[in-house]
Each structure stands twice: as C-alpha cells, then as structure tokens.
Write a structure and sequence with these properties.
about 190 residues, alpha+beta, three-stranded mixed β-sheet, 3 helices
Length: about 190
Amino acid sequence: MTVMAEIEHPADSGPLTVQDLEGMPGDGRRYELIDGVLVVSPAPGRRHQSIVARLWRVLEAECPPRFDVVLGPFAVHSGDKIELQPDVLVGRDEDFTEKDLPAPPLLAVEVLSPSTAIYDWNLKKAIHERLGTHSFWVIDPVEPALTVFELDVDGNYQQVAKAAGDEVFEAEWPFPVRIVPRELLGRLG
C-alpha cells in the first residue's frame, strides 16, 4: 500500500476531497480517501479476485430484492473526505446511486492482500465502524478464513464469528447465507 503524494493538488489547499478522486488514473490501482488522505493500493492478485468473485456469487444467490450485492471497486461515500471501496458490499437498493453508495453499507467485505492486510484489519475496519457499517468481514485467502465483526449496541465492532477451512459460517445479517471459506478458493484451493 502506498500513500500517494504526487498529485495535482496544491499543498496549501487542505485535505483532498471525493471530487479530487475523479482525476485519478484508471491504472488498476484502488484509490481511496480517508479523512482527506489519499490511500493507493496495488491491483489485487488472482487468488484475491477469485475469492471476491465466488463470494459475490454466494451472496447474490441469497440476496433479497430489497438489497444489492456489488463488487469493488465501487465507492462508498461519507461526506466529501471519505471514499472507501470494499471488495464486496451489500446495501439497501434504495441507498445506491449509479456511481456510489452515499450511505453506510449493511455489509463490507475485505479480502486481505500482502500489501493491504494491516490497512484492512485496522484503518478500514475503524472507518467502517465509524460510518456505522453493521457488519464487516475480513477474509484471509491464505488460511483460508473468514472473520466477522458486527456493531454492538454502543456502535463498536465485536468479533462475532470466525470460520476457517471447511468450517461453516451461517450468516444472519444482512440476510441468511452459508459461507465456507475453503469453497471460496474454488480451483485454487
């Protein structure tokens, strides 16, 4: 992960905004904004993308019509200083626009990569907690394992489940779905 500093933005004009992201290159990298600070991640690898695609299919197959399951990169906005792009997200259909989700997702999922693992486990989790994203899942593609965090009554994430290998996670939120981490690897497992 790299924090990009060489962009056309005057140093004295303050933090970057979501509008500044519109000028970023379409180079396969992921450009996110955290409290006005640009975070650039390299393009994900094959294993990562395979897991993302399989998870999307599992979620999409069970998704009720009032929700939508979207693959990243797809922008989640909060004000003009935060734009996140979860690997997979679930939101209420009515909350989406054609280009973004300007409301907290019901579920945000991050699949770890060597270059983004610390960022996903810490900063992105903290930002989703602050936004009020009810459920945050982290998938470790190496083990493979799924760790599930949900907001408690005080608005803090608590780990509510972990499934590894062939263990089954029966999600209830945002809708019932069965996840087996090893199955997300497909042929790569």
